[in-house]
Amino acid sequence: MHDPNANQPLKRFLTPFSGKAVQPPPVWLMRQAGRYLPEYRKIRSEAGTFLDLCYSPKLAAEVTLQPIRRYGFDAAILFSDILVVPDALGQNVRFAEGEGPRLEPIKSVDDLRRLTLSNTHYKFAKVCETVALLARELPRETALIGFCGAPWTVATYMAEGRGSTDQAAARSWAYRDRQGFSQLIDLLTEASIVYLSNQVEAGANALQIFDSWAGSLADDEFERWVIAPTARIVTEIRRRHPKVPIIGFPRGAAASLQKYIDGTNVDGVSCDTACPLSVMQAIAKTGKVVQGNLDPLLLVAGGDALDARAGAICEAMAGLPFVFNLGHGIVPETPPENVARLVQRVREKGN
Ligand code: 1CP
Q: What is the ipTM of this complex?
């Protein structure tokens, strides 16, 4: 008998990237591994520092698998962090308990001299050991997403020395000394190409480039520091690995989304919570995959409001190449049972 699913890839997450809709849509959530899960907190408290956890393949693989076991997401995202790249390049990076990342700030080209691509080998290899373990251990139907931070977003942390609300240190450096700042961006671009290629070679099925602070730049600066380096990463990865889908997440840049897609040639975009559903529909109708965009705080609130919005997103995107996700990462206050409720809702509603 003819099986209508015979030509579907085994991993449902990958189907929208061939331009086809899947019903119900594949679902995974940014930061699906993390502090909202008690089993994560247990391993985190036993693992030493946060970066120790990122460089311990067995433990990092285990925390990647935890949300897959609980919820059966269609994709797992490698457990690591975007700040592994500056750490591997040689910048001093640490995660202060309850305060977020702290880095010894890079202020000028002189400070850049301490960072080199040849430093990265050992630490990138540790992360890729995690990828290889996951490629073996994940269920066959679950895709594995590798990732990096986009050069602009990683540079904001490197220049500021910590997370910031306005990315002032990086924006000012870029205005003051365009050439010097572009050396930092170029270094990060090259490191990201190596890092992502290594992840694919170790077994990642798709890649996501997190540009969490893309929304803080003026138009021309956005082209220079967000679009151009991302385009170069996409070109280089595609040349080496033409079949691996690449998703961009230019958070806060809904108004420039089409320009981002045209300029970078990514296979899909992750949309933040503020992105209108009409914009997501228009992009998906061009054949690009759209991912998004439930408010993570609605996942904390739960209840009927959660069901209603999840349903509305699924309805708006039905029949289009779409992956259900949040508009940003899960927050630690999220009740784990609300995540179960959401996955159930997407799978019922999207059917
Ligand atoms: O102690 C802890 O457990 C720290 C919490 C934590 C976790 C769970 C951090 C510190 N990073 C992570 C994991 C992480 N970070 C993943 C793993 C996979 C998953 O999603 O499950 C990913 C993809 C990231 C990406 C990341 N790190 C981004 C991009 C996405 C986003 O949230 O915007 C950014 C900006 C970071 C930096 C970072 N790392 C950690 C924190 C608290 C932050 C944000 C700092 C800030 O507020 O600016």
A: 0.94
Q: How far apart (Å, rounded) are the C-alpha atoms in residues 340 and 307?
A: 12
Domains of the chain (ranges, CATH numbers): 12-349 (3.20.20.210)
What is the rounded CA–CA span in Å between residue 39 and residue 159? 34
pLDDT, mean of residues 239-251: 98
For residues 81 and 75, give the distance between their C-alpha atoms in angstroms, rounded to a whole number.
17
What percent of the chain lies above the pLDDT cut of 90? 94
pLDDT for res 1:
43
pLDDT, one tens digit per residue, over 31-73 is 999 999 999 999 999 999 999 999 999 999 999 999 999 999 9
Distance 3 CA to ligand 1 centre (A): 42
Q: Ligand 1 centroid to 96 CA: how many Å?
A: 13
pLDDT score at 5: 47
Residues pairing with 102 in the sheet:
94, 162
* Positions of E strands within the chain: 75-77, 93-96, 100-103, 143-149, 206-211, 246-250, 268-270, 289-294, 322-326
Spatial CA neighbour of 189 closest among 228, 246, 245: 228
- Binding annotation for substrate: 31-35, 81, 157, 212, 328
Q: Please say whether the beta carbons of 192 and 151 come within 8 A.
A: yes
Residues 77, 60: Cα–Cα separation, whole Å: 11
3 state DSSP class of 262: helix
Claim: this prediction has a pTM higher than 0.80: yes
Q: Which residues have a catalytic role annotated? A: 31, 35, 44, 81, 157
33 lines ligand 1 (CB under 6 A): yes
